[in-house]
Amino acid sequence: MNTPRLTPQLLAQRPELCPDHERLLALPEKVIQFGTGVLLRGLPDYFINKANQQQLFNGRVVVVKSTDRGGVDAFAEQDNVFTQCIRGIDKGSSVDQTVINTAVSRTLSARTEWSEILRCAHNPHMQVVISNTTEVGIQLTDDDLSAFPPASFPGKLTAFLYERFRSFYGSAESGLVIVPTELVPNNGTKLREIVLEQARRHELGDSFIQWLQVHNHFCSSLVDRIVPGQPNEQTLAELTAALGYQDDLLIVSEVYRLWAIEGNEHVRSVLSFAAADEGVIIEPNIDLYRELKLRLLNGTHTLAVGLCYLAGFDTVRESMENPATERFIAELMLEELAPAIPYPVDSQRAQAFGNEVLDRFRNPYIRHQLIDITVQYTAKMQMRNVPTLLQHYQRQSTVPLRFAQGFAAYLLFMKATHQEGDKYFGTRKEVPYPIRCDAAPFFYSLWQQYASDTAGLVQTVLRNVELWGTDLTQLPGFSEAIVSTITLIQERGVNEIINPVNTYL
């Protein structure tokens, strides 16, 4: 007997899966979401779905796909209904929870359905814009707002907002709450300035600009939940057997969840889903939450991922199960990053947060692929770790050794061994891996140029102000530590760095 697919029809046949599904599926569209990634589905869409179940928000999400990659579209086949398995430890107790998410109403392609996306701007129920377009998505580009669609996300958003402005004649009630979730400091403020600049460049008029400034609220936000990609084949098979249905959109997440949003009482009233879960925080200032997460969780990920991956591990969990890499990660986070957070943070709070993050890394239910953490590796290194490095040197002159070792492994990971079209690949134990980073062409050329001159390569990289915002060769001993690490890894292997006596590896 074939395993049925999760669809609204299956919910009607098995009402125990989602008892209130008829009401939930009939709710009006209130949110337009740029991005289909698992983080958006596992966190913002999770909160919206939970609030809908409690009759607190009562609105669904229109999702905009930026690409049409892939074959069969599971979103269309399942009418956007999907399963979220929440697994982990919460306050000492094991959690294994299954949620049927009905928050997404439609999934539209920006490339082929831009007219329909613009039509959503005419919806009087529309209140919220959410986005996650990676760290490089919030950039000012020379965009064409008349294109179908504009190339950049800010261009798409500007065109959408202009369509709404014209549709509602600039009324105050038509303004939206816009909440980007990209891991960019002050992402809401930055997005707002880019949209305003696009409006000026394209001469969309003073009335539109005034409407943007007065009646729309761009809220900086921070998201924090580990939501890996789709489970591996074995885990997916086990979950399918337990659930009794097939779900090609199924995601697994940890229990921990945080969405900190910078906003006032008006924002709180629009984002009424916040009342459904303590994981949504709306406050006038969220800098503390951002710094702790950005520097300790994300910063540790970025600095440790190269070493762990080149050492032969594939997931964060595997890295934490090895005593040598677990020790490296803990020392990096608690001894080097936590004391150098470029924000006034109580040391005890930083240490407590760091220890909580280490427990999350150890979650036995989550398979967070290391290769996924390396996407846009260079942008992440600059954003997450360079400010911490500079703060370290402001406080002391000693080299942060673990930091330097992690940076050296990043450079080695970025050493492409071959190119296929516009894609670059490195090699780990004679097996190719993708280098999915905008800086890949730069590093490909650099490694070829300095094939036998490690010191020259490191100096050239570190003094690149365009990459780092500053000249990192000015930091005493930093480049030397990187050079010696690269040399040691090339001569004796990465295991010599994370565990010099080779006891565990």
From TrEMBL:
Keyword Amino-acid biosynthesis belongs to the record: no
Record EC number: 1.1.1.58
Example of a GO MF term: mannitol-1-phosphate 5-dehydrogenase activity
Cellular-component GO terms for this entry: cytosol
A Pfam family matched in the record: Mannitol_dh
Alphabetical keyword list: NAD, Oxidoreductase
Record SUPFAM superfamilies: 6-phosphogluconate dehydrogenase C-terminal domain-like, NAD(P)-binding Rossmann-fold domains
Domain Mannitol dehydrogenase C-terminal positions: 285-486
Statement: the UniProt record of this protein carries the keyword Oxidoreductase: yes
UniProt-recorded name of the protein: Tagaturonate reductase
